[in-house]
Specification:
Layout: H1 2-7, H2 14-25, H3 29-48, H4 98-116, H5 118-121, H6 123-126, H7 139-167, H8 169-188, H9 193-205, H10 209-220, H11 226-258, H12 263-269, H13 272-286, H14 296-302, H15 310-318, H16 321-331, H17 334-351, H18 356-368, H19 373-388, H20 390-413, E1 435-437, E2 448-450, H21 456-464, E3 489-490, E4 492-495, E5 516-519, E6 527-528, E7 533-537, E8 552-555, E9 560-563, E10 568-570, E11 578-580, E12 588-592, H22 610-639, H23 644-666, H24 673-687, E13 695-696, E14 700-701, H25 741-747
Antiparallel strand pairs: 1-2, 3-6, 4-5, 7-12, 8-9, 10-11, 13-14
Helix pairs in contact: 4-8, 4-10, 4-11, 4-13, 7-8, 7-9, 7-10, 7-15, 7-23, 8-9, 8-10, 8-13, 10-11, 10-23, 11-12, 11-18, 11-19, 11-22, 15-23, 16-22, 16-23, 17-18, 17-23, 18-22, 19-20, 19-22, 20-22, 20-24, 22-23
Length: 748
């Protein structure tokens, strides 16, 4: 009423306005002044919530901030000022310094995540034989390269923390982005597993940019919203892992078509994309500002900022017990996400028999939840802090991480009782090349199945009367069954159509809607383990190799003859051997074990509804993983203000250590993936109990209120009073006459 009365008669509640005027006129001058001050403060608050710096707060050099800030000049808002307030309202607000730092940190971290897991997104292609355009990788090579991509980052993340405290997050960020570029170049020219491992290790160093991302945002945003800011920047950065799983297979397919199905050349050209992202994002990062009030050098010259001692800062950070507990906790949330980024695409590709494009889409689901899930964790952390203080932040972190572990266990239990490519008996020659057994992971259930006889005498008779250069075509090693470290079978392809002029089919017992099942033989890529799958080249549309096999097929859906060039061998090693054009226009097809067994004994890929169930559980699993990550970094800024960078680096390094444990230990190459999920989930839940040991003397812990533990202090090496954080300014010490050229220009 008072504000309305002072503004004069307006449309609205005129009776209320009159009551306000009457109340105001009956007050003393002092009361009127106090009430006016309250009204002005309320008005400031309302406008600040819309993103306006109505108090015109300036930095130490006289530059006005673009967003509302607190007493430490840290931004008090994020979402209301995230985008420009003009149509179409989706253009990022990159005003210096707060929002420029937020978007640069997000984009920079996104770029490194994209590049680190780009090889994983293309692994179904990279693992192929060199003759098929790949690098001839073994399962051990794949696991080693994934572990190296995240293990070298452990040391770099620990180093990145002190570097941020000493030189600033901006310059450290810039350097990390450029460290990864030589690795991307090496990957593009790799000739085998050795170069791949070295390349992924080098690219992985840039993943330490997570530390710079979180330190920079912690220095720019107030503690009331630092959980949300850190979680959003980190989450949208992590999104790069999901985006690369989604788009790299599509980029590869587009380049493949433009390069006449040249597999080797196409995947190498794909590496241009992550390299370009590193260069562009590094320029965005360097255009930012170290701290709200300016860059390190100018603030130190002005006297507002102390120069820090790297060794002392490291001692403070490494001697904090809370930091080490968060280190372990983060190993089993962010580390789990990195593990899934390494394992996800191949898991769906091998277990569920989906093409690389679809495996990339399914694998990307885990990372794509970062669009919102990590921010949810940060928002939950800040909300619990507002209601219950630090104890609320810790309780929320424990609950969410325990739910994460539960979802991981359920994901494994979905398929653990089914036969899968990794659960068939290996090295059992007595069973013959066409017979496989099954060991049910955590159960004692077993299956056996027989395949059609691979009669070598029939094959030898066929070869004796044929003039084809079998060895020259690379067929000799794969006559009856290729050399293999375990039982295997020739892969099958299901279709509704028969090839033109070919009288034989493997059988009419395919799944509903796919009555023809073809056995693809004499191509190494078609030799799969029972319940396994792989992709092979059909040579359809191949004009490069000038294959003599031509022909096509009649499409009954369109009533048109579809031409074809190239072909594959069917039923090689039997009397029905032939090389024909398959009824498909796809240059690559999935082949595998489409055989059906008694109900309950089907392969993972052939069990109705199992894929949908797994995807649903994985969505919830991913949400809890990323919420837990956001909750961790809602607590990190409180652990040690003088050693913010060191603690951020420690906790971040824990995530990469968890990835190494998950990739090489818990879900190792010789471990069933779903059985590994069950074990990993149990470890997540067990380690989350450590959160009960987090305690802040000034805030308390999960079970104890502040001060309840007497003199106990998790900070073992005590900082001096003069030890200020790299983002703590002494405004009274700043030389008032020192203004940068930018400030002078702004005043003009």
């Amino acid at each position: 009423y008072l504000t309305s009365a002072l503004a004069g008669p307006v449309e609205g509640d005129r009776a209320g306005i009159e009551r306000g005027r009457s109340l105001y006129s009956g007050m003393s001058d002092q009361s009127r002044m106090e009430l006016l001050e309250q009204e002005i403060a309320t008005l400031h608050l309302a406008l600040e919530q819309k993103g306006m710096n109505t108090k015109m707060t300036k930095d130490v050099f006289g530059r006005t901030f673009a967003v509302p800030v607190d007493d430490e000049h840290k931004a008090t808002l994020l979402f209301p000022v995230m985008f420009n307030n003009t149509f179409p309202y989706i253009i990022p607000n990159v005003a210096q310094p707060h929002m420029r730092a937020f978007w640069a940190a997000t984009f920079g971290f996104f770029s490194t995540f994209f590049s680190v897991f780009a090889p994983a997104a293309l692994m179904p292609t990279l693992k192929k034989d060199k003759s098929d355009g790949g690098l001839d990788l073994t399962p051990q090579d794949i696991a080693d390269s994934g572990a190296l991509a995240v293990s070298f980052t452990i040391i770099m993340r620990i180093l990145a923390g002190p570097l941020c405290d000493k030189f600033g997050a901006r310059w450290t960020f810039f350097g990390l982005l450029w460290i990864g570029i030589p690795g991307i170049v090496l990957l593009a020219f790799a000739e085998g597993a050795t170069e791949l491992k070295a390349a992924r290790a080098i690219i992985g160093l840039s993943l330490a940019s997570f530390v710079t991302c979180q330190v920079w945002c912690s220095q720019m945003f107030a503690k009331s919203i630092v959980g949300t800011a850190n979680a959003t920047a980190g989450g949208w950065g992590n999104l790069g892992g999901g985006v690369t799983q989604l788009v790299m297979p599509l980029i590869y397919e587009g380049i493949l078509q433009s390069q006449d199905q040249d597999v080797d050349k196409s995947w190498r050209l794909c590496m241009i994309v992550p390299a370009a992202l590193h260069v562009i994002s590094s320029l965005c990062v360097i255009s930012g500002q170290d701290l709200p009030d300016g860059n390190y050098r100018e603030l130190e010259k002005s006297g507002a900022k102390n120069k820090t001692s790297g060794c002392k800062t490291a001692m403070i950070g490494f001697s904090n017990i809370n930091a080490w507990i968060l280190f372990i906790g983060y190993a089993f949330c962010f580390g789990v996400e990195l593990t899934m980024n390494n394992k996800g695409v191949l898991y769906f590709y091998k277990y569920y028999g989906v093409p690389q494009r679809m495996a990339g889409i399914y694998g990307s689901i885990f990372g794509l939840m970062n669009i919102f899930a990590r921010s949810w964790g940060g928002i939950l952390s800040d909300t619990m802090n507002a209601k219950y203080g630090m104890r609320g932040r810790i309780w929320a972190m424990w609950v969410i991480q325990a739910l994460e572990g539960l979802m991981c266990i359920i994901l494994g239990l979905i398929s653990i009782s089914k036969p899968s490519p990794t659960r068939m008996y290996k090295d059992q020659a007595s069973l013959g090349p066409w017979t496989g057994g099954f060991s049910g992971g955590l159960t004692d259930v077993s299956w056996t199945k027989a395949k059609g006889a691979g009669d070598c005498s029939v094959l030898e008779s066929f070869l004796a009367g044929n003039t084809v250069d079998w060895a020259g075509e690379g067929l000799a090693p794969y006559t009856c069954a290729p050399a293999n470290d375990g039982d295997g079978m020739w892969g099958q392809f299901n279709s509704t159509l028969a090839p033109s002029g070919y009288p034989y089919t493997y059988g009419l017992g395919g799944p509903d809607g796919y009555p023809y099942t073809y056995t693809i033989t004499a191509q190494k890529g078609a030799w799969v383990p029972p319940c396994g799958f792989d992709s092979i080249k059909t040579n359809y549309g191949n004009t490069k190799d000038y294959d003599e096999i031509g022909g096509g097929y009649f499409d009954t859906n369109t009533n048109e003859q579809v031409p074809g060039i190239g072909g594959v061998w069917l039923n090689y090693g039997t009397a029905q051997v032939a090389k024909v054009v398959l009824p498909t226009v796809e240059p690559f097809i999935m082949v595998g074990d489409y055989g059906y067994r008694p109900e309950g004994d089907e392969c993972v890929a052939n069990t109705d509804g199992l894929l949908g169930t797994a995807l649903t559980v994985m969505v919830f699993f991913s949400i809890f993983v990323q919420m837990s990550e956001g909750l961790h970094f809602g607590i990190v800024p409180y652990v040690s203000r003088p050693a913010l960078g060191v603690v951020s680096g420690m906790v971040g390094a824990g995530g990469n250590l968890g990835a190494v444990i998950g990739t090489r230990g818990i879900i190792a190459p010789d471990v069933d993936v779903d059985a590994g999920f069950v074990i990993l989930g149990a470890v997540i839940m067990a380690t989350s109990v450590l959160f009960f040991g987090i305690y802040f003397p000034e805030h308390g812990g999960m079970l104890f209120k502040k001060g309840a533990l007497g003199s106990y202090d998790p900070q073992l090496y005590k900082p001096d009073d003069a030890d200020r954080g790299s983002d703590q300014m002494d405004y009274s010490a700043a030389a008032p006459a020192q203004k940068t050229n930018r400030a002078v220009e702004a005043d003009m």
